[in-house]
Amino acid sequence: MKGFIQTLKNIWSIKELRDKLIFTFVLVLVYRFGTHVSLPAINMVEVDNILDIYKNNGGNQQATGLLGLLSSFTGGAFSKASIFALGIMPYISASIVVQLMGLAIPYIQKLQKEGESGRKKVNQITRWLTILICLIQAPAYLTSITQVFLPIEQFRTAYLVDPNNIFLFWIPSIIILISGTIFAMWMGEKITDKGIGNGISILIMVGILAGFPTAFVQEIGVQMGDTGKGLIMMFVEVLAWLLVIILCIMLTVAVRKVPVQYVSRTKSGSLRSITNAARQYIPLKVNAAGVMPIIFAQALMFIPGLLVRSETTTNTFWAGFSQVFSWQYNLLFAILIIVFTFFYTAITIPINQMADDLKRNGGLIPRVKPGKETADFLDDVLSKITLPGAIYLALIAVLPAIVKIIGLTATDKFALFFGGTSLLIMVGVLLDTVQQINTYLLNHHYDGLMQSRLSRNPN
């Protein structure tokens, strides 16, 4: 505990790091404040009442499940008809599209290799694509809150203007939703440039964490109630949740180190012996795809729900694909994650380029010939570690359904924090942020040592 307090003091003593943390904290507060500012045409009090009635009186499980999951990424802004209802997700979608375009469009590939200037142009393309996606998602969102969440005529009091009026409701609301996403995107970029950590990821993480206190309190209330299992069960849940976090950390940081030897040269240009060469390694991540396979699979899982939407009963095999915690839904979800993990890893890890770079820089893998054999060796290693990584990722993704089916948790909201995209994003962002803070602390310590040494020996 003393070490932790001392670390906090060290962080606060570094002015640059302190300013970055304060800047990040202020922008996060602005983002959270915006999630509670509703669209001008919506009465938030009535919206909250309608959502409660809709969920308690036979609301579609597909809507309360998948749409609730989407709302968690925006910190509840999606379900609150907020100016940040679309959140930062259109920017994430645009970034994924641009990344995939880089594999097929030579112009994007050229920009990605031009360094800083190319990166700025790619970012500009991503911003324009974000606006285009918002132009599609904003009307779709407004349609959902007028036809899905507010289907009953007596609840029309939630609208301050006629929801069918194009000029008073639709056009202003679309402009505000697009502006909210652009502003959130700007804040994320500013956090990355002047704050600490990846700004876009931090905004997503904050949105996810915003729902945790409410979910935890609800879980305690149910478990401590008349139908609950008591304090012991709550203690077991917390221990299980901490264990899942440890498993997520292990998946995030796990790497397979492929040893590499770089042959050095003498001043005359002749090669030194390999035994005296510099020894390094190539870190191949067990989960090189990150959370992208889950995001891709989650996007496709809306399709089965739409196909079975016309079902009149929930006791059929096909109707299970529209229920987030059903075994049918999660089995298909896990299969899609494994498939997308291999796909995304194959298109994002440049095996041939890595082999060519090694050969060009005088590097070689022991007992493997440079060139094609090196590429084949790296591809074989990557395939072997990707399979268990994909299964591991799929298991974590469906873990909320597992804990719900076995009865470990009493509420759906708390079950969602036992795995899935939410927990993986939180773990990844926190690890990255802590790593950046540690880098600042180490650099400050190194500078201090150098200054102390120079003061003792100015010559």
From TrEMBL:
One of the GO biological process terms: protein transport by the Sec complex
Keywords: Cell membrane, Membrane, Protein transport, Translocation, Transmembrane, Transmembrane helix, Transport
Main location: membrane
Record-level GO cellular component terms: plasma membrane
Domain of life of the native organism: Bacteria
Xref: InterPro entries: SecY (IPR026593), SecY/SEC61-alpha (IPR002208), SecY_CS (IPR030659), SecY_dom_sf (IPR023201)
Residues annotated as transmembrane: 21-42, 83-108, 128-149, 169-188, 200-218, 230-255, 286-307, 327-351, 390-408, 414-434
Keyword set includes Cytoplasm: no
PROSITE patterns per the UniProt record, alphabetical: SECY_1, SECY_2
Membrane topology qualifier: Multi-pass membrane protein
Subcellular location field: Cell membrane; Membrane
Protein's job: The central subunit of the protein translocation channel SecYEG. Consists of two halves formed by TMs 1-5 and 6-10. These two domains form a lateral gate at the front which open onto the bilayer between TMs 2 and 7, and are clamped together by SecE at the back. The channel is closed by both a pore ring composed of hydrophobic SecY resides and a short helix (helix 2A) on the extracellular side of the membrane which forms a plug. The plug probably moves laterally to allow the channel to open. The ring and the pore may move independently.
Subunit structure: Component of the Sec protein translocase complex. Heterotrimer consisting of SecY, SecE and SecG subunits. The heterotrimers can form oligomers, although 1 heterotrimer is thought to be able to translocate proteins. Interacts with the ribosome. Interacts with SecDF, and other proteins may be involved. Interacts with SecA.
Family, similarity comment: Belongs to the SecY/SEC61-alpha family.
HAMAP family with a match to the protein in the record: SecY
Protein name per its UniProtKB record: Protein translocase subunit SecY
UniProt source species: Apibacter mensalis
